[in-house]
Write a structure and sequence with these properties.
alpha/beta, Rossmann fold, GMP Synthetase, Chain A, domain 3, seven-stranded mixed beta sheet, five-stranded parallel beta sheet, 18 helices, 30 strands, about 30% helix, about 25% strand, globular, binds adenosine-5'-monophosphate-propyl ester
């Protein structure tokens, strides 16, 4: 495959950027010409940010799996599409060629149909990182069902909420999942999630851990049995369902500043074009390279840069089931060495955690295949950036610091590997088509200032790019108020940023009540709701604080009804409650019991003060004169953990 839209010089980037701004429709129409469409579009773009209504490639028909699979078969059907590395290094790995992957996707697409799944139905996928997860996801896309993948670390309650919100009728899961030394009982979690559920008709269960599970007659079927049935019928191919470019491809739930996660909806056409475009340009992908993105497919990074981006480019995508430190902290480097990985895309938190193990785990590992390194999910501190550069990339590999979000579908700000300049801890320049602006609290655009090197503000975008979210599932008004209402005619990211004179962006972090813990996005309100479910808790307030490895840690201030009990046990009970309501990823790192929270006379919790105390600040807490009971602040300061 050739990629005529691959940018190969800084000059070419500037030119592409200019064209994309001056004539966006011509620019994206030109890129889109390189894909397989069942019918071409009538109009490249129609939009307004007030409703919002955004339509890319309107009138076009396509199926993303034809672009990810079928179109590669002739030229390199026998090339590896997916390499799977299991959790335990001594277990056999697996390889799926493009031909094999297409066959499996078609067969599982047929399985879905046999079980009653139709175009537009919502299928929840709750699996570990096994090849069948990729197959199930792509099979949904093949038949036009809307997939909603849920990360394996979420609890039964979280799943139940998402199933209800999406009105999902089908689930694909595994008996269990291996993650490092742990064995997660996925099917049991699903069974709990389904207590009281009235929408789910079928649960398809794939075998992985052989954990004993219960299979409910009429509802639960085995993945392997269903596949065997289709194989016995001799089915190896099914036609890809023609989808409108604006038909939903998937829902992915993500946290916001309210207690309830939102179902971000992405559309087939624009998402396909943009994830492919960014994969090829940011990572400077070259044919036959091996791409290793260490994210889980349950997050947007896995959707866009394990599945759709790499596969639509015909790349070899490596799926790793385990964790970076199991059985030891050399696991990533062993994988790079074993498969001659060319592109490594990971999170700053993983780098920081591996840094903590020193250089020993890197010794004797041949990392010379690496050409490009990438980071995503949170700001990367300079120390981690330099360690990654020096000891992993051996100063030979450009590092791309990619800024984006679940809602953006693909990378919006990043250097292009080896093509545009890199700057440690700066995401640098926007991709073509991406029109960033900084605004102040009132929404006025922040312009560059004479005599100052950087300006700062809230990060917004003033023009749509092809993979912008289209809605939040079942509640378009929520989409409008969350992203398009803070500042008129702008998409608001929720992040703060600095901009340098050269136009480089440095993301400074969320300016709303969203935390970023180990690159996982968690709403403070969500954690508070979970803590408040504990019968002894009167109220709570959750804030973030700087954490050496996780980037941000979760600090919870809890007002507890009965203070006579054992604090250590109560803490454990609260952690258990949060695990049950959200999942282990949302467990607070610190819980401080307090007798009251700092509130204004109108009853609003002054989080600013709590944030400062959690950060270790005791003196400059700002104006506390509006507090109902300023004395509570001293008590909180004294009790800081
Ligand atoms: O705060 C930004 C941070 O992660 C948020 C988006 O989280 P999520 O939707 O879970 O997607 C993560 C993977 C794309 C952003 O609002 N973030 C993401 N990438 C970066 C980042 N912060 C700084 N630098 C980045 N490269």
């Amino acid at each position: 495959m050739s990629y005529p839209y691959q940018i190969t010089s800084y000059e070419a980037y500037k030119e592409a950027y200019k064209q994309s701004i001056e004539n966006p429709e011509q620019f994206w129409g030109g890129v889109a010409e390189n894909f397989t469409w069942k019918k071409k579009w009538d109009k490249v773009l129609e939009w307004n940010f007030t409703e919002p209504k955004i339509e890319w490639f309107k009138g076009a028909k396509l199926n993303i799996t034809e672009n990810c699979l079928d179109r590669h078969i002739e030229a390199h059907g026998n090339a590896p599409a997916i390499i799977w590395e299991p959790n335990a290094p001594d277990e056999k790995n697996r390889l799926l060629t493009y031909k094999k992957l297409l066959e499996k996707v078609c067969q599982f697409g047929q399985v879905l149909k046999n079980n009653g799944v139709k175009k537009g139905d919502r299928v929840c996928i709750y699996m570990g990182m096994v090849p069948e997860l990729a197959v199930a996801t792509l099979a949904c896309a093949r038949i036009g069902a809307i997939h909603s993948v849920i990360f394996g670390g979420f609890s039964a309650q979280s799943i139940a909420d998402r199933l209800y919100d999406a009105q999902a009728e089908f689930i694909v899961t595994c008996d269990g999942a291996f993650r490092g030394a742990k064995d997660i009982p996925l099917k049991n979690v699903i069974d709990d999630a389904l207590i009281g559920n009235h929408t789910i008709k079928k649960v398809i269960v794939c075998t992985r851990t052989r954990t004993p599970i219960s299979m409910l007659k009429g509802r639960d079927v085995w993945y392997e049995d269903e596949m065997k049935h289709v194989e016995e019928q001799g089915i190896t191919f099914i036609e890809a369902e023609p989808m409108d470019a604006e038909d939903p491809l998937f829902i992915l739930y993500t946290s916001g500043s309210t207690g309830k996660p939102k179902g971000v909806v992405h559309a087939c056409g624009g998402y396909m074009v943009y994830t492919n475009y960014t994969f090829i340009n940011v990572f400077q992908y070259q044919p036959s390279q091996v791409h290793f993105c260490t994210a889980d497919i349950g997050w947007i990074t896995g959707h866009s840069y394990i599945l759709y981006g790499p596969l639509s480019a015909g790349a070899t995508s490596l799926i790793f089931e385990g964790v970076p430190t199991y059985p030891n902290a050399g696991r990533f480097w062993d994988i790079v060495d074993k498969y001659k990985v060319n592109i490594l895309y990971t999170a700053p938190t993983a780098i920081r955690s591996l840094m903590g193990f020193g250089l020993g785990p890197l010794q004797g590992k041949d990392l010379s295949s690496l050409k490009v390194l990438g980071t995503v999910g949170e700001p990367i501190n300079e120390e981690a950036w330099h360690w990654y550069d020096e000891y992993v990339g051996k100063k030979q590999c450009p590092i791309v610091d990619t800024w984006w979000q679940t809602e953006t579908g693909g990378i919006l700000i990043s250097n292009l590997a080896g093509i545009t300049p890199a700057k440690p801890s700066w995401a640098t320049l926007p991709l073509p088509g991406v029109q960033m602006v900084l605004v102040d609290e009132k929404g006025n655009e922040v312009l560059d200032e004479e005599g100052s090197d950087t300006v700062g503000g809230n990060l917004c975008i003033k023009f749509p790019w092809p993979s912008i979210l289209r809605t939040t599932y079942g509640d378009h008004e929520r989409c409008r108020t969350n992203y398009f209402a803070t500042y008129p005619n702008l998409y608001f990211t929720g992040d703060g940023a600095l901009r340098s004179k050269e136009g480089f962006y440095r993301i400074t972090g969320r300016v709303d009540d969203v935390l970023n813990v180990s690159g996982h996005r968690i709403g403070t309100a969500e954690v508070e709701n979970a803590i408040n479910m504990h019968s002894g808790v009167v109220e709570s307030a959750v804030v973030g604080y700087p954490h050496d490895i996780k980037g941000q840690g979760i600090y919870a201030y809890v007002v507890f009804g009965n203070t006579h009990g054992d604090e250590t046990l109560t803490r454990k009970d609260i952690l258990q409650t949060v695990t049950r309501i959200i999942g282990p990823i949302a467990k607070p790192d610190k819980i401080q019991f307090v007798s009251g929270l700092p509130k204004t006379r109108s009853g609003k919790i002054m989080r600013r003060i709590l944030r400062k105390i959690a950060e270790g600040e005791t003196e400059n807490l700002g104006d506390t004169s509006t507090l109902l009971d300023p004395g509570v602040v001293d008590e909180i300061k004294r009790g800081k953990i």
